[in-house]
Amino acid sequence: MSDLEPRPSPHLLGGLGAVAPRPALELLPGKTVTLGERMQVRRLLPTLGRRMVGAWAFVDHYGPDDIAGTDGMQVIPHPHTGLQTVSWLLEGSVHHRDSLGSDVSFAPGELALMTAGHGISHSEQSPVDHPRLLQGAQLWVALPDGSRDVAPAFEHHATLPGFEVDGVTATVLMGSLGGATSPGTAYSPLVGVDLALAAGADVEIPLEPGFEHAVLASSGSSVVEGAPVEHGSMLYLGTGRSTLRLSAQAPSRLLLLGGEPFEEQIVMWWNFVGRAGDEVAGFREQWEAGERFGHVEGFEDGERTPAPPMPPVPLKPRGRER
C-alpha cells in the first residue's frame, strides 16, 4: 500500500530516545487518510509522539468498508525501498502484482509479505469479482542497514501457524509466539500476531520482555492490561513485559506488534526508507525516470503513481538518543 498524501511529511525515525524503558500504556492517536480515489484508512504509525514499535514503522488500518457496487481498493503501481510490506486481511480479498512478476490474490488468514530491499514496484486492487466487505491492515517493517539493499522478493503463505488458549486463537504472521513460528522472512527480531478473542475471554499470553510492543484493535473492542482499546485504535505497551492480560466481552480481534527497539536512525518519506535525505531524493528521481523499480505487468505505459514533490527542507535522520 502506498502513502498517497500529496505532500507527505518526512519522518525521522529510529534511535532509542523514544523507546519506553519500562512497561507503558499509551493510547496512540491515529488520523484518517484518503487512499486512492475514495478509500479511507486510519494511520496509527507514524503518529505524534510515537514513530516506531521495534522495526514496525507504518501501520494503516481500514474497514470494515462496504465496497459492493464499487471497485474497492485501487492502488496503482508505486515504488518501495528499504522496507517490507506486511498485508493482513480480516475480510475481503486483494489482488497483488509486482515488478518481479508476482500475480497473487490473497484472502483473510493469508500472509502477503513483500520485501522491497533494493527496490520494487507493485499494485494492490480489489478483484473485479470481490466480496462485499473489506477490512484489514497494511504494515511496513524497516529493514536494518545490513539488509536494506537485499534483492526484492514476494512471499504468499496461505496457511500460518498459531495456538489456542482460554478463548484466544493466535495466528503468527511474523516472528514467534507461544511456540509457533511464522514462515515469513524477517530481517530483525520482531513479532506480529493476530489474536481472535471469543466473547468472555480473559487470558494472559507470553511476551518477549526485551521487545517493545503495541496492540491494534482491528475488530471490536478489548481490554488490554485493564485499559479499554476501541476498534481502530492502538495501545503502546513499552518494554519489559513478560506477559499480557487480555479480555473481551464480545468477539474481537487484536493485532500484536513488537520487536527489539530499532537503534538505527532512518529517513522515511513517501514510500521510501533510507538513511539520508539525498539518498531518498535519489530514489524519487529514479522512480520518475523509470529506473530501478521495474514494471508491473497489466498496466498501460505511464499508469503509475507519480512521486510527490520533495519537501522544502532537507531530510535528515535525527533520531533522539537516550
From TrEMBL:
Residues 193-292 form the Pirin C-terminal domain. It holds the Pfam family Pirin_C. InterPro entries: Pirin (IPR012093), Pirin_C_dom (IPR008778), Pirin_N_dom (IPR003829), RmlC-like_jellyroll (IPR014710), RmlC_Cupin_sf (IPR011051). The keyword Metal-binding applies. Residues 294-304 have a biased composition (Basic and acidic residues). One of its GO terms (molecular function) is metal ion binding. Fe cation binds at H78, H80, H122, E124. It comes from the Bacteria. Residues 294-322 are annotated as: Disordered. Keywords: Iron, Metal-binding. Belongs to the pirin family. This is Pirin.
